[in-house]
Task: inverse folding
C-alpha cells in the first residue's frame, strides 16, 4: 500500500500517469523555491526541511518522466490482457498482503490473506496541513471528488467526498506537519495501535505516500475506517498518482503484482493512474457474489465467473 521510489543506477523511482476517460487537473511542475510568508488566509510558510523535501520529490518525478515512465494512455495494443490475466491479477492483488508489522515496524512481506472491502458507504474527508496553498487545496479537492465518482462507478458502491462524518481520511501534510499530527491522528482514529501511528508519523523519505485500512475488530474483514497519507510537497503528477493508488488500495486492493499490466498495482510504475484493467479489479472486488473473509481458493472459481461475465467470455 505504499508508493516508494525504485533505485537502479542513481535514482529510478515512482509514480504517475493520466486517467483514461476522466479529466484530471495536472499542471507543469518547475523546480520549487521557498514560498513567501504571505500565502493567503490561514496558510503557513514552509520550513527549510519541507522545501528540501519538495525539491527531492520534484527530482523523483522528473527522473521518471525522463525514463519514459508515467504512461498516460492507460494501456493500449502493447498491453493486452484477457480473462485469465484478470483472474490471476485479482487473486494476487486482492487476496495477498504487501506488508506486515514485525517488531513494531512495517516491513515488506507478501502473505496470503482474505478478501476485504467496505460494506458501508465510503466517505472521503480531506485534511490539509496549514502550509498547503489555497489554490492547491482546491485542485486537490476537485481531483479527489472526481476520482471518488470514478471509483463509485467502477465498484457500484457508494463513494463520495464529505466535509463531515468522514470514514476515509486523506491527509495532505508536509514533513513537519505530519510529524506533529499525533494528537489529531488519535482523534480521527481513536483506537489506532502504536505501531501504525508510529509508521505514519515517522514515514521515511523513500515512502511517498501510504494508506492504512481498518476493520471493525478482530475476525472482521469489512473495512470501517481508513487513513491515506500524502506528502504535501509532491508536484502535481506524483501527487495525483498517490491519490489514485492509495485511495484504490484503501478500498481493498491491498497488494502489488509485477505481472499486472496495464495497472497501477505494479511497482514498475509504467502506468500511473487507474486503468481499465484496474477498474475491472474493483468491479470484481465489490461484486456481491464475493464476500469479505473469502480466501484465495474459495474465491477463485467465483472470480473466474465474474471476470468472464465482465470480459464477455473472453479467454
Result:
Amino acid at each position: 500500500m505504499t508508493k516508494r521510489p525504485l533505485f537502479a543506477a542513481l535514482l529510478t523511482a515512482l509514480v504517475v500517469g493520466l486517467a483514461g476517460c476522466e479529466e484530471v487537473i495536472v499542471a507543469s511542475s518547475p523546480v520549487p523555491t521557498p514560498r513567501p510568508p504571505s500565502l493567503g488566509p490561514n496558510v503557513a510558510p514552509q520550513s527549510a526541511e519541507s522545501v528540501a523535501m519538495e525539491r527531492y520529490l520534484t527530482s523523483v518525478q522528473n527522473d521518471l518522466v525522463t525514463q519514459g515512465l508515467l504512461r498516460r494512455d492507460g494501456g493500449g495494443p502493447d498491453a493486452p490482457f484477457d480473462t485469465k490475466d484478470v483472474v490471476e491479477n485479482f487473486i494476487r492483488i486482492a487476496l495477498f498482503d504487501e506488508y506486515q508489522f514485525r517488531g513494531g515496524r512495517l516491513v515488506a512481506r507478501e502473505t496470503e490473506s482474505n478478501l476485504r472491502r467496505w460494506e458501508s458507504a465510503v466517505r472521503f474527508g480531506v485534511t490539509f496541513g496549514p502550509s498547503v496553498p489555497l489554490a492547491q487545496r482546491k485542485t486537490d479537492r476537485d481531483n479527489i471528488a472526481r476520482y471518488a465518482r470514478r471509483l463509485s462507478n467502477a465498484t457500484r458502491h457508494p463513494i463520495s467526498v464529505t466535509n463531515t462524518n468522514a470514514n476515509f481520511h486523506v491527509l495532505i501534510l508536509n514533513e513537519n506537519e505530519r510529524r506533529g499530527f499525533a494528537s489529531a491522528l488519535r482523534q480521527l482514529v481513536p483506537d489506532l495501535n502504536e505501531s501504525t501511528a508510529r509508521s505514519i508519523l515517522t514515514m521515511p523519505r523513500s515512502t511517498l505516500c501510504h494508506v492504512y485500512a481498518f476493520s471493525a475488530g478482530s475476525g472482521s474483514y469489512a473495512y470501517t475506517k481508513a487513513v491515506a497519507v500524502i506528502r504535501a510537497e509532491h508536484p502535481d503528477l506524483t501527487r495525483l498518482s498517490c491519490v489514485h493508488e492509495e485511495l484504490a488500495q484503501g478500498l481493498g486492493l491491498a497488494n502489488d503484482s509485477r505481472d499486472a499490466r496495464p495497472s497501477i498495482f505494479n511497482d514498475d510504475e509504467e502506468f500511473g493512474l487507474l486503468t481499465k484493467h484496474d477498474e475491472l479489479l474493483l468491479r470484481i472486488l465489490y461484486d456481491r457474489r464475493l464476500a469479505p473473509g473469502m480466501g484465495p481458493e474459495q474465491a477463485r472459481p467465483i472470480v473466474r465467473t465474474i471476470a468472464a461475465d465482465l470480459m464477455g467470455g473472453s479467454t
Notes: The first strand starts at residue 2 and ends at 3.
